[in-house]
Design goal:
The chain is an alpha/beta fold and about 300 residues long. About 50% of the residues lie in helices and about 15% in strands. The chain folds into 2 domains: about 1-200 and about 295-305, Spore Coat Polysaccharide Biosynthesis Protein SpsA, Chain A, CATH 3.90.550; about 220-295. Bound molecules: uridine-5'-diphosphate and magnesium ion (MG).
Length: about 300
């Protein structure tokens, strides 16, 4: 049995087309459940999901009590999915459902994770493309696991991998990273990312930035070392200055470094460096705090369709 997981946040204009295209794929695959996660939508998404469940018993759904974000929605889907192979895709049809059979084919060849890799993003802004490009390269350099570049959450995972992900207690869930972390044979299938079918992008710049910082902090401790390196650099600078100042005092009549401006600039500079380092520390400490609180990842208002097998 296969599971298709689709997180949904205000996607009323996409749901009908999404279902039509997924239905074709489900008919082709055979025994499949479609797990829809309503991430606190404020539009008619939930009503439409209920209606789909009413007309097609393969459709199961979860509904959050509020918006918890994309990664949490996917995590909930993984918690509830029952398939031997689980496929995650976006609701806006940027991840073409027609690619799913190809993912399944690779899985049948023996791969535990088959991720879809974007070779092209159609009609996305240059800003998004540039920041995404830079970010994935930075992450590859810093992260302690190899996270393939230009992959999103669109992928197929074997039951074994899903069980491992479900057993991970951490609350900061960067699925792409965790997926790479578990290991096992993994491979990619290349595809061209379509533009959004309808509606607005739900990942605002702020949410994207959060996700980027999250992934860096979750998968690398290199930023913590930044303080050490900067500290060493500052110490070197200070020593060089000391030598210079001594030299000027002993061998020159008036030192070129006398002046209030120099002192102010040096002060501001080191103040800034220290604050940045404290900020980085704070990112890690904040996350520790988050983990320690141990609150549930999400709250469910409604669950339906998981009683019987499709
Ligand atoms: N999404 C969600 N919760 C959120 C934001 C987004 O469940 O808080 C879903 C959204 O409905 C879509 C997917 O996550 O199915 C990806 O969102 P979007 O297309 O806006 O992001 P992008 O394509 O830029 O990654
Ligand atoms: Mg999208």
């Amino acid at each position: 049995m296969y599971s298709l997981i689709v997180p949904i946040y205000n996607e009323e204009d996409n749901i009908p087309v999404l279902y039509d295209r997924l239905k074709a794929v489900m008919d082709q695959l055979g025994s499949t459940e479609l797990v829809l996660i309503n991430d606190g939508s404020g539009d008619r998404s939930l009503e439409m999901i209920r209606a789909l469940h009413g007309q097609d018993k393969r459709v199961c759904y979860l509904s959050f009590a509020r918006n918890f974000g994309h990664q949490v929605a996917v995590t909930a889907g993984l918690n509830f999915a029952r398939g031997q192979a689980v496929i995650i895709l976006d609701a806006d049809l940027q991840d073409p459902p027609e690619l799913v059979p190809q993912l399944v084919e690779r899985w049948r060849e023996g791969y535990s994770v088959v991720y879809a890799q974007r070779v092209k993003r159609r009609q996305e802004s240059w800003f998004k493309r540039l920041t995404a490009y830079g970010f994935y390269r930075l992450l590859q350099r810093l992260a302690d696991v190899k996270i393939p570049a230009d992959t999103g959450d669109f992928c197929l995972m074997d039951r074994q991998v899903v069980d491992l992900l479900n057993a991970m207690p951490e609350r900061n869930r960067y699925i792409r990273g965790l997926r790479a972390w578990v290991g096992f044979p993994q491979t990619g299938v290349k595809f061209e990312r379509d533009p959004r079918h309808a509606g607005e992008v739900k990942y605002t710049f702020r949410k994207s930035l959060r996700l980027a910082i999250n992934s860096l902090v979750s998968f690398s401790i290199v930023p913590l070392r930044l303080a050490t390196y900067l500290g060493l650099l500052a110490a070197l600078l200070a020593m060089a200055m000391m030598v210079l100042v001594l030299y000027w005092r002993l061998f020159q009549t008036n030192s070129p470094l006398d002046g209030f401006a120099t002192v102010v600039i040096a002060n501001l500079f080191f103040g800034a460096v220290q604050l940045i380092c404290i900020g980085i520390l704070g990112e890690y400490i904040g996350r520790i705090y988050d983990e320690v609180k141990g609150r549930p990842l999400y709250t469910l208002a409604e669950v339906a369709g998981f009683e019987q097998l499709p």
